[in-house]
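Narrative summary of target 7.
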Amino acid sequence: MEPIDKPDHNLVEQQVKDVIQDLFQVMVQVSSYDAAGRPSREVLANELQTLSESLRSVHTAASSLPPGGGPRVPDLLVQYVENGRNPDIYTREFVERVRRMNQLARGKMRAFAAFRDVLAAQMDAALPELRGDVGRVVEATGGRGEAEGERDGAGAGDGDAPGPGAGAGMGGFAAPGGRVV
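Modeled conformation, tokenized:
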């Protein structure tokens, strides 16, 4: 979510902060309320009147905003908060879920790259007249022209074991029989 810098939004935000402050003032007056004392009753009535005016002004200002003009809060996050859970838990779980999905996608990309290289090696062996076309397709799909780590975002020392064709050159693949493609 990106911050919204519209004057109407900022006004509503400030008014909501004012309502929170007014609620705090009402809480203070209620906790120190003396039923027998006349000043306590008047002060509490004034605080409630101020709270009512603040709520009315928030409603008026918020009604003037266009529908959907505010930030979009995910429904699942709203449910977390309504159920009394910490929104930081939602954020942590979301980040972990995205990380797992990224790892899965990275694994699929590596598998397809390995399949591409095996297929290219087999096609080169079976159809030598298509070697130039196969080479262009492999290069167009991110093979042979780049180092393995640069192609898929992995750097040296990322903990992965060397893949097929390791040591066979820049993005090369060792075909069956030891021939480097």
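Residues 147-181 have pLDDT under 50 and may be disordered.
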